[in-house]
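## retry 2 of 3
previous attempt timed out at serialization; input unchanged, resubmitting
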Amino acid sequence: MAEKEISQAVISRLPRYLRYLGELKDEGVERISSQELSGLMNVTASQIRQDFNNFGGFGQQGYGYNVEYLYTEIGKILGLDKKHHLIIVGAGNLGQAIANYMNFERRGFIFTGMFDINPELFGKKIRGMEVRPMEEMADFVKQNNVDIAVLTIPKGEAVLVAAKLSDVGIKAIWNFAHVDLAVPKEVQVENVHLSDSLMRLSYMIERYESEVANKE
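## retry succeeded, writing output
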């Protein structure tokens, strides 16, 4: 039987479910209904049930959801029951900030190496990890079972680096470069364009202010 196709909208909500469930678990909450979860997350109870039904439901009528079980199962769906080794390409301010964000490792994303083209950065330690020259990247990926690369480099370099990473068997790229990458279909890409996010925020400000002005 073919695996059910899950929409990107549902997938994008899973990390948020996981975050809220993790907080409930830490607070000692054992059980929660879709209605109660709806009140916390500002997502309709119907939407929550529909989302979970894509993966088998997880709950029982009149019982609700077991928080720890649901947290564990969503973690498995997101692949967080496995370790992922990642490298960061670009040791500038953004690359260093990502390297220093400890919460990734709590989720199973292990910071394994950092690379840059600037000789002045070679040997500099970021959270105990030395910055290495780009020439060492390909061999390092193959030798250390690296499956995710984080790109925090200019867009012109990102295209070339992504191609090189694809050739050495990288499985996924977290792309902060402001360019859409052309990679083989087996390489997964998540684009994070920071300015796009700010522009969406600007749009929401404009829309809200327009709505307020129209009511006056």
